Amino acid sequence: MTTSPQPLYYARHIFFCLNQRENGEDCCANHHAKEGFDRCKAQVKAAGLAGPGQVRVNKAGCLDRCAGGPVAVVYPEAVWYTFVDANDIDEIVESHLKNGEVVERLLLSPDVGR
Ligand code: FES
Q: In the chain, at which end, N or C, are there fewer CB atoms within 10 A of the end residue's CB?
C-alpha cells in the first residue's frame, strides 16, 4: 500500500542550536546563538511569514555541528548556516525563508562536525 505525501504544515522550518554546555566545552550558546534565534523570530513575524503554511522558527538542542557554531538548519532543503550578527540573520530571512534563495556566503562547510 502506498500513501500520498501530506501537504507541508510549514513551508520552511528553521532550527537554531541554543545548546549551553556547563562543563566548559564550547557550544553555540557561547557564540550569541540566542540573539540570532530571537532576531530571526522577530524578523519572520515582522515580515508576515510566521504561521502554518509559512515559516516556523524553533529552538533546538545540540545539532552535533558545534565546531561551526552558532549553527541553524533550514528544512525541507536541509541547508546549514552559520552566522555572526543580525545582518546575517536578516539575509537568511529575506533570501531563504522568504524567497527560497540559499545564502551561499553563510553556508556551513560540509566537513564541520562536532
Ligand atoms: S552546541 Fe550547537 S551544534 Fe553542538
A: N
Domains of the chain, CATH where assigned? 13-106 (3.40.30.10)
**pLDDT one-digit tens code per residue, 14-60:** 999 999 999 989 999 999 999 999 999 999 999 999 999 999 999 99
Verify whether ligand 1 is closer than 6 Å to residue 63 (CB atom).
Answer: yes
pTM for the whole thing? 0.94
Nine-digit cell string for 74:
533550514
Radius of gyration of the chain (CA): 14
Instruction: Kindly give the number of the ligand 1 atom that is closest to the alpha carbon of 70.
Output: 2
* pLDDT per residue as tens digits for the range 79-96: 999 999 999 999 999 999
